[in-house]
Amino acid sequence: MRTKQLLPLAMLVILAACSKDEPHDPVLNEDPSTFAEIGSLDIGETGAAEISAYDPATKRLFVVHNDEADKINKIDVIDFADPSKMTVIKSITPNSGAVNSLSVSNGKLAAAIEALDKQQPGKVTVYNTSDYTEIKTIPTGALPDMITFSPDGKYILTANEGEPSADYMNDPVGSVSLISVNDNYSVVNIDFSGFASQQPALALKGLRVFGPHASFAQDMEPEYITISPDSKTAWVTLQENNAIAKIDITTKTATDIFPLGFKDYNVDANAVDLSDKDGGVSFKKWPVKSMYQPDAIAVLQNGAVPYLFTVNEGDVREYDGFEEAKRIKSISLDPTAFPNAADLQKDEQLGRLNITTTLGDANGDGLYETLYSFGARSFSVWNGNTGAMVFDSKNELEVKTNAAGYYDDGRSDDKGVEPEGVALGLVGNKNIAFIGMERADAVAVYDVSNPTAPVYLQLLKSGDAPEGVLFVAAKDSPTKKSLLIVSSEDDGVIKVYSPKTL
Fold this sequence. Notes:
8% of the residues lie in helices and 42% in strands. By secondary structure, the protein is mainly beta. A four-stranded antiparallel β-sheet has the order 1-35-34-33, with no helix packed on it. A four-stranded antiparallel β-sheet has the order 2-3-4-5, with no helix packed on it. Strands 6-7-8-9 form a four-stranded antiparallel β-sheet, with no helix packed on it. A hairpin with a 5-residue loop joins strand 12 and strand 13. The two termini are 44 Å apart.
């Protein structure tokens, strides 16, 4: 019988020290520039995969499934224990109305549901994520279009867009519903009527208030919400109004509106392709400004500064009773401002570009001396305390997608790549931003460890028209690695991506 040979104590100490120096946690060594697809699931046709929410306790993914052709509106429940083998295991159907958005926290699934008559108050229904039983239904403002839990799980907030009726005769007040989970889901609807007296000053900075016969509060249309890590402050995009509103959750009041101003396409860094009839993609300077009009928003706290990341999709009011957009070839240009108007109005130049008719004719003589298009075709970073811009991606999203062969020249005359979704997450030791682009069918990945100077890392091919961009941290992930979940509304496809380790 052989005797075990014991290592000297000194050698054991050396080995222990070496083991501490060697990487032992693969999550810390995730490379955020190496995200690759690890799973995909097709759950339907157009509209079938919109917004997603993940529950780490049950390892289930909840997805808004909205198929207008088949008159389907439900929440699909997906077994997400193995993202490479996703399967739909159940569907939840609301009693009435259409589900627009979902959020999960502490075993609760909250769904934002619009009324059958969209101008009437909507509701939030809260379900148990383990057995899908209803916990509570809470009334909200009109057309709750986005929903989110606060990080501490104590509040549910909805962005109630309050869209007008087709004839624009019924325009509900835009609002934010703030629901206190621990107070039996009591709700306070916060509107923006208190800023009406500031309208002239805010308009000079780029706020748009332009709906026919609409009051200030009616014209505000909340789109998307993000909440500070301490759950005390919320920021809300007012997309059509070209602004961000700030809300104090503790006092349940709106405290600020930050107009976002306008982007200048007449500088080299912002060069864009503004025609779909110019024979290809060509990025040039043009005498055009554009409204930022952000859709989604996310916050990254860095010291005392909350940095707000917005994706500047752009949006147009198009109703039977009011349409604001016209092509430049269909309007009259001021000859002093545009001495070359005849050339500019050709289809291969600016003639096809859609602009708003609510701005640009300052003296009301019917001649436009300034041209304002929709959306900035970029993502931006703003100081959440002051509303000041600290970064804009300029034309990089379009340049990168064009180089990859993803740019759709057919959208050049409209809103370009249409950045629509954004998610932030810690990958390895770096803060990363994921930017979903509806018309490029792609997600751009950026290192935002320095939020004032984001660095492009890679481009991921998504499904058709990515609507939901969701990050799952490694600690919550079923694979124990960071995950990016992208749900695309035009083909009903959900794709899952994960990074490699160094």
